[in-house]
Amino acid sequence: MRPPHRLSYHRKPSPPATTPFPRTGDSSSPTLKMLPEQPATLVLRRFLFLVAVSLSCVILFRASYFVRFLPRFQSSTSGSSSFFPFNFSSAFDDSPPVSLAGDGYRLEKVLKDAVMEDRTIIITAINKAWAAPNSVIDLFLESFKIGYRTRRLLNHLVIIALDQKAFARCLVIHKHCFSLVSNGVDFRHEAYFMTPNYLKMMWKRIDFLRSVLEMGYNFVVTDADVMWFRDPFPQFYLDADFQIACDSFLGSSDDLHNRPNGGFNYVKSNNRSVEFYKFWYTSHEIFPGYHDQDVLNIIKFHPFILDIGLKMKFLDTAYFGGLCEPSKDLNEVCTMHANCCYGLDSKLHDLRIMLQDWKQFMSLPPSLKRLSNLSRRVPQNCSLDSLHHYDSPMQDIEEGGHD
């Protein structure tokens, strides 16, 4: 998909300036025409000329500095080179920017109350549909309570509410809640994958996470349809700035051809990660209608990632699985994501089965757990076929990246 052409901004030509004095050299002013130019005037003119040249050089230098970060890629349809508009703006055209001016102190307090000793927090986001009783958020919290060494992690979980109904429900069921509500954008109802509201919600999340990094917090961001069965921190890479779960893992954590899923990632706050999130967010301007992980699948190859020195890792589905590629061993699995799933009812059905299987596994004595070869009962209602309800603009690039 090619981005729409942007209209160039042209200033309206100013009318010719009028002056009460005739210009030098004007034939209507014989007196001025005959006056020779004074040495002081020549010096002033040369000085002004040098200033103008110097300013031009400074402007060109600054422009060239930013141009070197503009991504180039081969269009999947035309093969021509394109540029990303690089504008560190915030939020969407039809909603106010994510601003910490009014809510900064409150957000800082929520994060401070939930933070671990190493300034890490766990973040998830919900809307009214996912916050309803017996919906996704209840299953999400239940997984922490029945998981192995995961209950204590609830103390470090911050729930971001995308509408007032979700915020009200969060205050009832959890102690660390933050309201991130946008005027003019309705996130209350179920946002089907790849619909306009879904895309706005995903990109709003990316911009918000950038602001959290700028505040100096590391985070694990997790979709609420990710079940936490074990503490994932022992499986994270110590030297990575950005590590992300996959829809499909190819065997190496460094292979850029792994297909990442933005529903679960661990990010350390530093200059590299902040610049990466700015780059990721602003890159969506060249792909109106693209999912955040579709865009990630393109920019992960870009030289800008090497330029800023970001260390990116892809997490093995053996530990961080999902319905796209389920974990095979319940003795190892940390998280399971209800990805590759279309529709809330289908998602809830398979999530409940997932929790039942885990409870059954945990009820076994240790000796049987090690020998356990429980057959996976999911996916059932969720499947790749269910995603044919939509047409992703990324389908001509690759088939991964489903929620």
From TrEMBL:
Keyword Transmembrane: yes
TM segment ranges: 47-67
Region named Disordered: 1-30
Residues of the Nucleotide-diphospho-sugar transferase domain: 153-351
Record's keyword annotation contains Cell membrane: no
Pfam families, A to Z: Nucleotid_trans
Biased composition regions of type Basic residues, renumbered to the chain: 1-13
Keywords associated with the record: Membrane, Transmembrane, Transmembrane helix
The protein's name in its UniProt record: Uncharacterized protein At4g15970-like
